[in-house]
Design a protein that fits this description.
CATH topology of the largest domain: D-Maltodextrin-Binding Protein, domain 2
Order of helices and strands: HEHEHEHHEHEHEHEHEEEH
Number of strands: 10
CATH architecture of the largest domain: 3-Layer(aba) Sandwich
Structural class: alpha/beta
Helix content: 40-55%
Shape: globular
Largest sheet: 10 strands, mixed
CATH superfamily of the largest domain: Periplasmic binding protein-like II
Radius of gyration: 23 Å
CATH class of the largest domain: Alpha Beta
Length: 299
């Protein structure tokens, strides 16, 4: 009898020790945010949201180096996070190619504006977006790493809206726009597409500071590509003049609005049903507030 009591007591103690650690392995914060590159604009937005949620007594975590829009979507679909920052056109492409997966997400809030910047050679045959369409396979464009670059998603959407752009050669030998600047300056490629907050892109800053005698921002104004809508049914691209400031002043021809382009708003998305309604309401409120702060910092 004493032996049985001893075994029961020992087993009870073992369970008491093991259960907390076992539960701890399964417990995750109610909100896990897929962000982007450490220090990048998506990370800054996610970190600010997490900090604000903490003040509301809501625990969250920020996942870093997740691969940008495309990587964030993939990770969310695998259950690695339930909140993510993404370009809206990445979600549009998902809806076009995999509608069932796109229905897993709901838009929480708009965060900050991202501009479509087309860098071209001042003496090159491509001076604006329409020229890429005209030259087709004779033209080449740098989009960056196909697994991480937001420009890849943007270009895919442009091609879906106007398939003439599908003939343009994607210069896949250049997987980093910053490295490709010299290739553009030497005429080895015809254009580089950046999708970015104006103050947040190193390649744009480098071009403005050191290569503006050879490079400039080309106009983007094609009525065939600006009628797409995002998941909420709102216009995906908005026509805009590229702001001329300390980051772009040497690449544009006047103070404001002379170079036509497009902008869109980075969004915060949520996996449907992954948090309760009260937490979702707080997340939406926090994200809207953070969005205005990030917008001021990046543009």
């Amino acid at each position: 009898m004493k032996r049985n009591l001893f075994l029961i007591s020992a087993l009870t103690g073992l369970i008491a020790i093991c259960l907390p650690s076992a539960f701890a392995q399964d417990l995750k914060p109610p909100i896990s945010i897929c962000s982007g590159t450490d220090g990048g604009s998506y990370y800054l937005a996610a970190k600010a949201i997490a900090d604000s949620l903490a003040k509301e007594k809501i625990t969250s975590e920020v996942l870093v180096d997740t691969g940008g829009s495309l990587g964030n979507i993939s990770r969310a679909l695998r259950g690695e996070c339930n909140v993510l920052v993404s370009q809206p056109d990445a979600m549009v492409n998902l809806k076009r190619n995999d509608p069932a997966s796109a229905r897993e997400f709901v838009t929480v809030a708009s965060l900050h504006e991202e501009y479509l910047i087309l860098l071209v050679n001042r003496d090159g045959k491509v001076g604006e977006l329409d020229d890429l369409e005209s030259y087709g396979k004779e033209a080449s464009i740098v989009l960056g790493d196909p697994d991480f670059s937001g420009a890849v998603q943007t270009w895919a959407n442009l091609v879906a809206e106007d398939d003439d752009y599908g003939a343009v050669r994607i210069a896949s030998e250049h997987d980093d726009p910053e490295f490709a600047l010299e290739a553009l300056a030497q005429g080895e490629v015809d254009a580089i597409l950046l999708v970015t907050g104006i103050k947040a892109n190193r390649a744009l800053s480098e071009a403005n500071s050191y290569l503006s005698k050879k490079l400039r921002i080309g106009a983007m104004n094609d009525g065939d590509v600006d009628d797409a809508v995002d998941l909420a049914g709102d216009p995906l691209l908005v026509s805009v003049g590229v702001p001329s400031n300390g980051i772009t002043s040497n690449l544009t021809s006047c103070f404001f609005g002379c170079t036509d382009s497009y902008k869109m708003q980075a969004k915060l998305y949520l996996v449907k049903g992954s948090i309760d309604r009260r937490t979702e309401k707080t997340l939406r409120r926090v994200a809207r507030r953070v969005g205005s702060q990030i917008q001021s910092a990046l543009n």
